[in-house]
Amino acid sequence: MGRSRGARRFAAAIVGAIVGVGGTLFAAGAVANCAGLQGATVRWVVPSHAGGGYDAYSRLLQPFLEQRLGARIVVENRPEAGGIVGAAQIRDARPDGATLGLINASGLLAVNVLEESRAPDPLTDFSLIGRVVSNHVVLFTGRDSGFSDIAALLEASQSRPVVVAVRDAGSAALFAVPVTASLLNMPYELVGGYSGSASRTLALIRGDVDIAVSHLDSVEGQVRSGELVPLLRISGPATLLPGVPGLGGPDGLAVQRAALARGPFPEAMQAADDLAELIGAGRIVVAPPGLPASLQLCLEETLSGALADPALETAAQRAGLSLEPAGRAETRAGLAAAASSADRFRGLIRAAVAQTRE
Amino acid sequence: MDGTILDAALQALGLVFSWPYILYPVAGTLLAMLFSASPGLNSSGLMALAIPLTYAWDPLAVMLLFGAFVGGATFMGSVTAILFNIPGKAQNAVTMLDGYPMTQQGQARTAIGCAAASSALGSTFGVFLLIALIPLMRAAAVALGPPEYLMLAVWGLTTLAALVGSSLVKGLAAAGLGLSLAMIGYDPRTAELRFTFGLDYLHDGLNLVPVFLGLFALAGVIDLIASGRETLSGQSRHQDLGGSVAEGVRSVFRHFGLFLRSSLIGTVIGAIPGIGSAVAGFIAYGHASQSARDRSRFGQGDIRGVLAPEAANDAKDGGALVPTLALGIPGGTGTAVLLGALSLHGLTPGREMLTGNLVLVFVLIWSLFLSNWITSLLGLALVNPMARLSTIRTARLIPFILALAVFGALQYRGLIGDAVCAVLFGVVGYLMKRFDWPRVPLVIALALAPMFETNLHLTLRLQELGRVDFWSRPLVLLLLALTVVSLFLGPFLGRLRAFRAGRRGRAGGGRP
After folding, report:
1. B49 touches chain A (CB under 8 A)
2. What are the backbone angles phi and psi of residue A321, rounded to the nearest 5°?
3. Which residues of A touch B393 (CB under 8 A)?
4. Touching check for B234 and chain A: CB below 8 Å?
């Protein structure tokens, strides 16, 4: 008797559990259109560590997008493998607006020139929502490195290779460093596996490496506090860092070094411009491919509306984050131009990736 | 500590406890507790929400509020870990290894009392170490590099030797399984896929939260059903619950050496950027079991298994502020959002802030300190009503626990695959428990493997390029010595004790 009552009780427990779990699964079902995002949870994938530039931009956008969508946005950092893991997660998610993210378009374009690449292609593997900002990349050293300027670094590189901290396949450094080094005739060794700007910055401060390449907004605090010293603007306008030499342009370091080596000026200048084009592909908000047209339009409008919000502009200014928004068409055009630039650097990128995998 | 630092510390303390500023840390703590107790929410999300709301505030109020957000979130997740085998966050997972067995033995109040006391005191340790380090903060932030991180991971992994349970072979096999499972997904260095068997879900590797929920919470539910127990604690009335809060609090002082060592482990791990929040608790737990004379109760409801991870988890917050304040480099997600808030108010962490804005730095530290204490004291006040839950009839509790576990797995990243993963590991966990295979070595190996792998690659490369000398770094050598001692001295002493006991036994047996 007692046994059968116990059995009934456990049967009831199992039924209750199935109802509970079933209810939970049902409640977690994804929404299918933009209006349906009201009250939903949107997963916002950041393919880098917390604390870096991509994270800062995502958290800057988060409340403004939440307000406009009426959804809760959960920022998720997926830094593995140079952000390829995070980008692949966006690509592989359902195109229902419940997964969005901010990708490093130039890093992905660069790694895609490798035949064996499995990384998502920003041009074909996502629904483009819009660009938040073009990237500007700077070459830094640590305060105690002994390199007061780029000339000192280049001089030292003639007696031993410069040691560079890089992330891994998928990061801007993997093409920015070899291209810059080839234009400056600077021998280098890459140390891959520093998975975010925080770990690269610490590596520079500790003196594990000589230099690293970062987006300026990722390390602005350390530059202001004097822990990091900017040596060279690989891309970006002179106003970005007054007094710091630039790589490109008619009076840039690439042309000066080419002159010194009696090399072809125009080619060096073109290579530096192509590099800036590739880097400038920027930080782009994407969704999984195959987004329904109404949802695509709504998300584009939501993003552009948020980026034009004066409150967001003020917040970005206070946080030292610049904004260069662009709609889908302009973003796509920029990506196409950057992709052809990436193709030009195929050999250098392949050699750099091979070095990090040694 | 020089006079300037002491003056700033006292001035900040006065500010924190002055009216109306005291309201900010109190409100911040309550909000952080509320968020951390809700599945799928966390204090980083709360901070992100608060950033735009605090644009117009003065920096002092912002420091008070955000300090409380950083500190107020850890403890509440331990309560569900202890009572229901469901960790609120990944970092609370390790507490359930011994906390939940204590609940099953009717010791829920003791476990929660111990968790609350070790959390509060652990955070105090972390905060005071942080204050002591202020003059040396930059040096402390850069003292550890890839070789030290590597050796910390190696030391953590060697603690597995103490947790293998009754069979060394089974324990090592479980640890090997954990290391193998950690290899699934993209190689963190080369971005090549490993062991994904064509499944997209596995590209990302196995996430700790669904694995923990499955191996412990769901396996525990299956075991509960199979055991036919009427309530979690085996008791039917609240007054039947054994243990007491006071006993839990006293246990921290009874094992004060372990508390200090665990807090130190937590502070050091907290200062390493990018290391998952679960790592500190696991290394402290491994150390507790390894350094114990009698390890037989670990995993069965040993209070030291609650004390060590709880102290480490809360001491970690103080450690995480070292690179944040010294260099503007966040130790984790919470401090990353904190940095965002500081930059919005024109505050740049680093030397400038540590000299020009030292009072504000102390306001942040004291707010963190206060919020950790408020959380623990409130947690203690809630012990009795929460402990009653363990006397609810199993038949009513099982659907609740199951739904909470699956919801927790789903809510974490919104992936159905996580719920499936939790269920699969639920079955694996139950079978491991049933056939006496230890689960703890598996989860520790899974948690520590990424730290080990990344830093092994970095150390080898930097050594090859002559940028580090592994064998000339004092901290590496210290950790190496600790590892060797852990591996060989423990078993040697055990054998020596057994030999002596055997000799005494033989001598005793010889007497008429």
Report:
1. yes
2. -110, 120
3. 9
4. no
| Nearest residue of chain B to residue A50 (CA atoms) | B333
Q: Which of B:442-471 have CB within 8 Å of A?
A: 454, 457-458, 461-462, 465, 467-468
Q: What is the DSSP letter of A46?
A: E
- Chain A, chain B: beta-carbon pairs less than 8 Å apart: 222
Q: What is the pLDDT of residue A23?
A: 43
pLDDT tens digit sequence for A176-201: 888 999 999 999 998 888 877 778 88
Please answer whether residues B410 and B416 qualify as being in contact, where contact means their C-beta atoms are separated by less than 8 angstroms: yes
Asked if A168 reaches chain B (Cβ–Cβ under 8 Å), the answer is yes
List of chain B residues whose C-beta atoms are within 8 Å of the C-beta of residue A198: 273-274, 323, 329-330
Q: What is the DSSP string of B313-335?
A: HHHHHHHHHHHHHHHS--SSHHH
Predicted TM-score (pTM) of this structure = 0.75
Element (DSSP H or E) covering residue A132: strand A127-133
Burial of B501 (0-12, 13-18, 19+ CB in 10 A): exposed
B335 neighbourhood in chain A, CB within 8 Å: 51
Contact B414, B206 (CB under 8 A): no
Q: What does the CA dihedral A348, A353, A354, A356 come to, rounded to 10 degrees?
A: 130
Domain ranges of chain A: 37-135+281-329, 137-278+346-356
For the sheet with A228-233, list strands across it.
A188-191, A162-165, A211-215, A137-142, A228-233
Report the C-alpha gap between A57 and A281 in whole angstroms: 16
Q: Please state, in angstroms and as integers, the Cα–Cα distance from residue B257 to each residue in B220, B253, B263, B295, B310, following that order.
A: 32, 8, 10, 16, 14
Q: If DSSP codes are grouped into helix, strand and coil, which group holds residue A164? A: strand
Same fold, A37-135+281-329 and A137-278+346-356: yes
Q: Nearest residue of A to residue B468 by CA position?
A: A208
CA distance A194 to A204: 11
Q: Which string of DSSP letters, residue by residue, matches B92-104?
A: GGGGHHHHHHHHH
Binned at pLDDT 50, 70 and 90, residue B466 comes out as very high
CATH 3.40.190.150 is the classification of domain A37-135+281-329: yes
Is B468 in Cβ contact with A92 (below 8 Å)?
A: no
Please state which of the ranges A327-331, B249-253, B314-318, B407-411 shows the lowest mean pLDDT: B407-411
The predicted model gives B160-169 an average pLDDT of 66
The tokens of B221 are what?
């539910």
Pairwise CA distance, residues B312 & B266, whole Å: 4
Report the distance separating Cα B432 and Cα A323, nearest Å.
53
CATH code for residues A137-278+346-356: 3.40.190.10
| Interchain CB distance below 8 Å, A356 and B323 | no
Q: Note the pLDDT tens digit of each residue in A257-287.
A: 887 776 667 788 888 989 998 888 889 999 9
On whether any CB of chain A is under 8 Å from the CB of B52, the answer is: yes
Tokens of residue A48, six digits = 């880098």
Give the start-to-end residue ranges of the domains of chain B: 3-472
In chain B, the residue whose alpha carbon lies closest to the alpha carbon of A44 is B413
Q: Does A189 touch chain B (CB under 8 A)?
A: yes
Q: How confident is the model at residue B86 (pLDDT cuts 50, 70, 90)?
A: confident
Query: Nearest CA of chain A to the CA of B399: how many Å?
Result: 4
A331 in reach of chain B (CB within 8 A):
no
Record: contact B190-A202, CB cut-off 8 A:
no
| Size of chain A, expressed as the number of residues it contains | 358
Inter-chain contact A225–B350, Cβ cutoff 8 Å? yes
Q: What is the pLDDT of residues B407-447, one digit of tens each?
A: 777 766 667 788 889 899 999 999 998 888 888 788 878 87
Distance CA A225, CA B454 (A): 29
